[in-house]
Amino acid sequence: MKVHFWGTQGSLPAPFTASIIREKVFRALEAAQGKQLDSADAINQFIDEELPFSVGGTYGSNTACIQVDNPGGAYMLCDCGSGLRDFGLSLVRAGLAKTPATFHIFMSHLHWDHLQGFPFFVPAFVKGNKIIIHTYHEQTEACFREQMRPPVFPVPFDALGADIEFDVQEPGTPYNIEGFEITSIEQNHPGISYGYRFSKGGKVAVYSTDSEHKHDAYEENYPFLDFFRDADLLIFDAQYTMADATFTKANWGHSSNVMGVELAARAGVKTLAIFHHEPTSSDQALDEFLFNTRMYCNIYHQEAGKKLGPELYPKKIILAYDGLDIEV
Ligand SMILES: [Zn+2]
Ligand SMILES: [Zn+2]
After folding, report:
1. Which domains does the chain have, with CATH numbers?
2. pLDDT (0 to 100) of residue 309
3. Ligand 2 mean position to 111 CA, how many Å?
4. Alpha helices in the chain (DSSP H)
5. pLDDT (tens digit, 9 = 90+) per residue, 107-148?
6. Among positive and negative, which fits the CA dihedral 107, 110, 114, 115?
7. Is the pLDDT of residue 98 over 90?
8. 40, 78, 245, 303 from 252: Cα distances, Å
């Protein structure tokens, strides 16, 4: 199973300024001083192996949208953040925008950072395409229409060429689509959100964004442990530090990196992907956040590892970024 990240930021897109790019260029040139970078291979190797990701790359600026790869079948996506626009443009660039296709989109919830890419999703304008929006929120269609109603948007929803269907189900209803078994869980978030667990061919990827785990997460039978159980990949909303999640931003509907490690370790998750990044964090701050999360995981394994059995999880912790592909 392969997962592609089109948008990973939380709350709102967070694009760069010229001064941020300048700072990256400055740090790269500073690090390059005295190195033999006289070929394209040497330069690429230097970028990939010696520069921190915050200098040689970026964690991105688009809001939530991920794709679960389904070669030869319908497109499988979660959420319509601004990353959805880039997904649509990738089809245009690949010459696929005019080929009729089916898109299944699973909605976590209706906050604007999870809807705002849809009015810019090129395949929605193309006749012959079918888009099925799977949701447990009754107001989904109204929200999609509202964000395209004048005077806030020039093109009304009814002008879209694609056949767009809203599949509103009772919360908890599982799906079996394109060979994927998809189950869901209700999450603690203002207005309620839902996590999705995709299983196919013995592989499992869980998309769990906009979800606040409180103190009951430490209970033995916490329901998310089963939902995350043995996942090959867990995409987890860790927008906050432990201090923010516990004090200043308690009840804002998001969780911490520490909680991500705690739940991934107990549920036997192989790869923990931190997601829904705080938009005020710089790339450098996110590098440090990842470093601290891995450090905490090592400490957690030393302290609590003995209780967890011979195998320690998560095996790997990453910070998702726009454009990242993960094969699980
Ligand atoms: Zn969000
Ligand atoms: Zn939200």
Report:
1. 2-12+59-327 (3.60.15.10)
2. 79
3. 5
4. 18-32, 40-49, 53-56, 83-93, 140-146, 223-228, 242-246, 257-267, 283-304
5. 999 999 999 999 999 999 999 999 999 999 999 999 999 999
6. positive
7. no
8. 46, 22, 8, 29
For residue 189, the CA-to-ligand 2 centroid distance in Å is 7
pLDDT digits (tens, 9 = 90+) for 177-199: 999 999 999 999 999 999 999 99
The DSSP element (H or E) to which 2 belongs, if any, is strand 2-7
8: nearest Cα among 195, 293, 286, 219: 286
pTM score over 0.90: yes
Peptide bond into 314 cis (omega under 30): yes
Q: Ligand 1 centre from 120 Cα, in Å?
A: 18
172-177 LR contacts (CB < 8 Å, sep 24+): 172/136, 173/136, 175/106, 175/134, 177/74, 177/76, 177/104
Mean pLDDT score of the chain, rounded to an integer?
A: 96
Tell me the ligand closest to 116's alpha carbon.
1
